Amino acid sequence: MTGILFQVTMALYFGGTVLFLIYLLRRSEVLSKWSLIIAGIGFAFHTLALLIAVVMVDEVPIMTFKGAMSFFAWALVLVFLGVALKRGLHVLGAFILPLAFLSLISASIAPAETQYLHPFFRTIWVHVILSMLGAVGFAVAFVAGLMYVMQDRLLKSKQFNVLYFKLPPLDSLDSLNQRSILLGFPFLTLGILTGALSAQLTLGTYLSWNPEQILALVTWIFYFAVLLGRVTVGWRAKKAAYLTIVGFAGVILTFVGVLLKNHGPLGIL
Amino acid sequence: MNIIVVGLSHKTAPVELRELLAIPESRMGEALTRLLSYPNVKEGMFLATCNRVEVYAVVEDPDAGFSDVQDFLVSTHLAVSAEHLFPHLYRYADDHAIRHLFRVATSLDSMVIGEPQILGQVKDAFELALAHRTSGVILNKLVKKAISVGKGVRTKTRIAEYAVSISYAAVELAKKVFSNLAEKTVLLVGAGEMGKLAAHHLVNHGVKQVFLTTRNSQRAENLAERFGGSAISFEEFPRILPKADIVLCATGASHYVILSEEVQRSIQERMNRPMFLIDISVPRNIDPAVKDVDNAFLFDIDDLKSHVGQNQEERRKEADKAEEMVTEEVTIMQSWVRGLEAKPTIVALRKRADEIKRSEVEKALSRLGNLSTKERQAIEGLASAIVNKLLHGPLVTLKSEAQSNNGFAFIEVARRFFDLPETSLISDLDLLYQEQGSNSEQDGIGCDLSEVVESDPMKDEGESPKES
How many angstroms separate the CA of residue A179 from the nearest CA in chain B? Predict the structure, then answer.
């Protein structure tokens, strides 16, 4: 049941991705509405699938890497729909929907985890949710940064093409970038704290220096510096855009770290 | 009699020089009167905008006229020396002068073809000349014609539309950097027409604050009033630069007014908040190296043009259409001016024939003694018939040949054949005024001058300065 729902969701996200990309490269505004509707329906299916998974499987699905990636995609689309409806930044979909689609793909191709979770570990879902919400914030910041760099280049090279017309004003993108980091950073902080706490409870140590933990800490320090740099030395606009693109690479690496951890010699944590 | 123009424009002189040549309105009357005090100069008009300074004059001899007007320019502007000024001046006479004025009025000579302000500026210059009675029959006709050609071109071609879209492109570009212009501060440097037009659009979009600066502080004050902004001194504006989100530069100076380092520094001071700079000047006023400064977005007039994305070919066609209209009107105007030369001759010829006829008839009548009214009328009729028939051919030839290229030669021949006195131009013009009063000439394009001239100058001939 949930499998079919996830597949429908994936199909809809893929359809939305294609529509949004066509919208991005054509003058017409007509497609933006349809792409948004497709994304909305996809999101509804996704929500249903997640709910059914939680209720039916009697286990928090995001405990697995698959589940976590699915939740990440879901939260990402949720944020996108909110921003699109509130600020009219529909064009964001052309970047976020592919990202959501890719997350679902990676969730579906990740090796199945049949680990039995010790009941003691069950509280760890809080850590996963918080960390994922942090990642969503950085993903949106990454998308805003990417769009910023594209628009910056178009303006600098004076290419007034379709993309230039579709991309939002630079300051909107910079502000979206900043807000997303401001949203993601507290979640990541809490995610790391709860993770450390879980580690203490299960393994007796806050920090075991596994790849996931190291990368998470590096990511945290990085975004902390980005936020601090903005207010102190003016790391905004183009610099902030580049920094968040680099930062998101750190987030991806952390995902990979989690995957390594779960399947590597280090075991569960 | 010749129409001449002596002047300089953004094409021939830097803004520093053009600004030196401006005449404050309070001194305009005195200046125009002094222009007319040159014996050679019969009519005069002074056209000054931020992009051009020109003196239009009707003179007896073009070469003498040129040197008179040049002398006038130098003596009116003590700050400018002849050596400094003359290399920048252009001098046109007759049909070249007419064409020049028409091209100016139609904005074909402007920095941005189709810009709307020049037509109003020509009207203002004309009104000043009218107010100070330095415009006479020829300039009246010429400038009215120029204004009507300007209007015709604006309505019949699309060049005007194009200029508006260029200045509007500045707003559209700004909106790609700033989502909300209402929070933004604009700095307008210089008083170039396109700059003002772009500033106008920005103000319409409700920018928070407008700073203005021009080299001429009075002009900055005037602009500040117009845009509801604050005028700052030209020396001070680099200090304001970091506060400006949007910089519009249209001074037309020959050097960079805003340097790349200044922008770099401003961006730093702004903590990397982007700056949007538009350089609507030719030559450029903002160092093009600004393009390499992060978070500074510089666009020049060509970028605005390409943003408008209008078909280059189509644009050229519209300008060509306008040029054609100008050429047509120049031809019409030219033949009017030539006819004007023939008219005093024709009038003098008629007058002379009339005098001869009258004195001969009188002589004959006194010799013949008592005659009946019928006989008297027969003799007078005979004399009139002979004179009219004899003159018919020469008059027709004179009128038609005066329109031709060697019209002046025909007029000269007629004067010699009939032994006509070299009547002074002034009395010729007297006759002309009388003739024109009864015979209002209509030109090709209906010239609606109701908003230009309150009172018809043609009717003011009684008090015309030309009369004395």
Answer: 16
Which ipTM did the prediction report? 0.86
Does B172 contact chain A (CB < 8 Å)?
no
- Cβ of B268 within 8 Å of Cβ of A160? The answer is no
Give the Cα separation of B277 and B255 in Å (integer): 17
CA dist A95 and A98 (Å) reads 6
Tell me, which fold does domain B165-308 have in CATH? Answer: Rossmann fold (3.40.50)
Q: Are both B2-156 and B165-308 of the same fold?
A: no
Provide the β-strand partners of residue B2.
Answer: B59
Residue B111 CA, chain-centre distance (Å), reads 15
Same structural domain for residues A153 and A256? yes
Please choose, from the candidates B172, B121, B115, B139, the residue with its C-alpha nearest in 3D space to the C-alpha of residue B57. Answer: B139
Residues of A with CB below 8 A from B177's CB? 155, 169-171
CB contact under 8 A, A172 and B179: yes
**A170 closest CB neighbour out of B268, B274, B303:** B274
pLDDT digits (tens, 9 = 90+) for A90-139: 899 999 999 999 999 988 887 766 454 444 556 677 888 898 999 999 99
Do A235 and A229 touch, CB atoms closer than 8 A?
A: yes
DSSP, res B286: B
User: What residues of chain A lie within 8 A of the CB of B270, using their CB?
Assistant: 234
Claim to verify: residue A50 and residue A9 sit in the same structural domain: yes
* Beta carbon pairs, A and B, within 8 Å: 51
Q: What is the pLDDT of residues A40-93, one digit of tens each?
A: 999 999 999 888 887 776 555 556 778 888 899 999 999 999 999 888 888 999
Q: B303 touching A, CB under 8 A?
A: yes
Looking at the partner chain, which of B177, B294, B307 has a beta carbon nearest the beta carbon of A171?
A: B177
* Beta pairing partners, B279: B249, B300
Distance CA B110, CA B116 (A): 10
Active site residue B50: yes
For every residue of B320-340, DSSP letters joined together read HHHHHHHHHHHHHHHHHHHHH
Task: Give the right CATH number for B2-156 from 3.30.460.30, 3.50.30.40, 2.70.70.10, 3.30.1330.60.
Answer: 3.30.460.30
Note the pLDDT tens digit of each residue in A149-179. Answer: 999 999 999 888 889 988 999 999 999 999 9
Consecutive sets of 10 residues in chain B, 468 residues long: mean pLDDT of each? 90 78 83 91 88 90 92 86 90 94 92 82 93 88 94 88 77 90 91 80 87 86 87 89 92 84 93 91 85 92 75 76 93 78 79 90 88 88 91 85 66 77 45 44 33 36 37
Chain A: which residues have CB within 8 Å of chain B?
151, 155-156, 158, 160, 164, 167-172, 233-239
Tell me whether residue A120 is in a domain: no
Sheet arrangement for strand B90-93: B41-49, B52-59, B2-9, B90-93
Rg, Å, chain A Cα set: 19
Across the interface, whether the CB atoms of B179 and A171 are under 8 A apart is answered: yes
The torsion defined by the Cα of A90, A94, A96 and A101, in degrees rounded to 10, comes to: 130
Nearest chain A residue to B309 by CA distance is A160
Q: Cα dist. A78→A35, A55, A176, A245 in Å? A: 15, 21, 15, 21
Mind listing the pLDDT tens digit for each residue in A207-265? 777 777 888 889 999 999 999 999 888 898 999 999 999 999 888 888 887 777 665 44
Written as six digits, the tokens of B235 are 């020396």
